[in-house]
Design a protein that fits this description.
Layout: H1 3-6, E1 9-14, H2 18-32, E2 38-44, H3 50-56, E3 63-66, H4 72-85, E4 90-93, H5 98-112, H6 115-120
Parallel strand pairs: 1-2, 1-3, 3-4
Helix pairs in contact: 2-5, 3-4
């Protein structure tokens, strides 16, 4: 493992159902633990709570995931807030409605298919 993989990367989720966020993100983290050292550092249940949450976590989060319950416009707003609050943060939004269509397993499968590209994002 390289040193970049040893240094934990804090991840924040924005999901109105914190228990589901913890389960889905926890599954993804478990599945990639041999490649990435990711810690689910917090969840905001509101758009208004995103900036204060990001500012409260040390070291600052490196990744923000938006859940699929938000509209594309809300997801765009959440990601904009994240990038203004923490320049350089990686952000990703699950397609709107994915949870409703595919359940938690569908979201995990979706994120697993994109985690490498998210982690390489500049």
């Amino acid at each position: 493992m390289s040193s970049s993989q040893n240094t934990p990367i804090n991840l924040v989720s924005v999901n109105t159902v914190p228990e589901r966020a913890k389960k889905v993100i926890g599954t993804v983290i478990e599945n990639v633990k041999d490649k990435y050292n990711i810690v689910h550092a917090g969840n905001s249940i509101t758009i208004e709570g995103v900036a204060p949450l990001l500012k409260s976590i040390q070291p600052p989060p490196g990744i923000l995931f938006c859940a699929s319950m938000w509209t594309p416009e809300q997801q765009e707003e959440i990601q904009k807030i994240a990038k203004e609050t923490i320049p350089g943060i990686k952000t990703h939004a699950a397609p709107t409605g994915l949870q409703a269509q595919g359940g938690p397993e569908g979201v995990v499968k979706y994120l697993m298919g994109r985690i490498d590209e998210i982690m390489k994002e500049k």
